[in-house]
Specification:
0% strand, mainly alpha, Arp2/3 complex 21 kDa subunit ARPC3, 180 residues, single chain
Length: 180
């Protein structure tokens, strides 16, 4: 999916079946879990409970560029399930899964459809905003109160800032991977 010609050998290796691809997916999942668990230990929820930077999304967004749709979808699902099992619970899983799946589908569609016309930063910001929307929708249904969306402007601002950071890290990572 990545248009940078220097990444083609890495993309071909990541998309070809075999032990190398499985090892890369395993490394990506381990990184996602380590970053996700670390983020849960660092309190950033001074304004709104549960707010995190979403740095594990660096790995998810890299996966969209490097792996096939199905492989990244599996990573997203495993991220939600394993982080909920290790440090969350059923409600955490539901919020995370809805936000993450919506975010993943939007980022994948943008990258697949717009190709070089959207940067990792743009895709990341769109994904962050969609993640928030998905989680707020679940929260509104859970508490049966639409007023939860009053938090949306603040959360979108914080999510967009986090999305920019994640996008920059992905852009730098793609450049670094292209040199390997």
């Amino acid at each position: 999916m990545q248009t940078d010609k220097t990444l083609i050998p890495l993309v071909q290796k990541a998309q070809s079946p075999g032990a190398g691809k499985l090892a890369l997916l395993g490394i990506f999942l381990a990184l996602i879990l380590a970053i996700g668990l670390f983020e849960r230990m660092v309190p950033l929820d001074f304004a709104i409970p549960g707010v995190r930077l979403g740095l594990s999304n660096v790995i998810i967004l890299l996966s969209i560029y490097l792996f096939r749709f199905r492989d990244t979808l599996i990573l997203v699902t495993l991220k939600c399930a394993l982080l909920a099992a290790l440090a969350g619970g059923a409600p955490s899983f539901l919020y995370s899964l809805c936000g993450s799946l919506l975010s993943f589908f939007v980022m994948w569609l943008l990258i697949a459809g717009l190709k070089e016309r959207i940067s990792p930063i743009g895709a990341s910001v769109a994904g962050a905003v969609c993640h928030i929307a998905g989680q707020l929708l679940v929260a509104a249904l859970a508490i049966e109160n639409i007023r939860i969306f009053l938090f949306m402007p603040l959360l979108v601002f914080m999510g967009a800032a986090s999305g920019v950071l994640v996008g920059i890290l992905v852009k730098l990572s793609l450049k670094t991977l292209a040199r390997l």
